[in-house]
Amino acid sequence: MGSAIIWGKTMIDHITVRGTDFVLPGGSGYYASLSAAHFSRAYLVSKTGSDFPRSDLEILRAKGVDLAHLEILSGKCNIWRANCDDPSSHKTIEFQMNTPIEHEKLATPLPPADFAFVAEDDPGTQLKMIGQFQPGTTVMIDTKKRWAIGAPEQLKTAIRNATIAMMNIEEAILLFGSMPAVALLHSIKDLGVRIAILNMAGSGSIMDNGRSRFSIPALNRSPIDTLGGGDSFAGGFIGALAEGKSPESAFIYGQVMSSFVVEDYGPQRLFFLSKEEISDRYLTAQKLVR
Known about the structure:
alpha/beta; four-stranded mixed sheet
């Protein structure tokens, strides 16, 4: 089994859905490592507070996520509160930044891994993290609307230092201008990455690997909660690559994992997901690739 480093946030999400409150583990690192661990060994590189529930960490550990590089700091973890009456849109009520994610210098050296995922964050912070990977590491990077608006050139620089770039269509339009989806995909690819992925929300995803282009529709047309869909896609993609799958297969597995996580609130659907379920949906999805 191969391995992948997952760098991102580990926090608590408070989600209100039509008057019902859900308190769930969250953060890009939590979702992506949980998704990746279904395929390969996942090393979570993150920080969280001492109040983060140990039971939620045990879920990761039971799934095979290595937590040796998760720093637990004294104090509260980051907290996000949001309203989720619309499954595809989350209205932020409050975000408490109690724990910094930036790793100026890791407490312990990173493990040897050929693959890594760097979740969305300040592009400068992403670059510092990429700089700590071993030379030759295949790095997948995610982006965020905030940085496409506020720091577009820095974001482009961060993408240029990655091997694989994933963006959603709204972010890509903000960064490159309004143009057809295929042109946006080419614009991402032109930054020098080997693989470009454009996620189009409810319309699925397209990928350019330098040799050919693939598209796959959304596999779940009636999501319960889309939170974590992108991070679960990324975790599934990089985890499948680490397992030895081709980029084309990893692309399908990413969409499969995203389709599962949106079936419930938070990451709960991934807690009990079986290999048989993943395999069955992969075979279904494979027939839809164009």
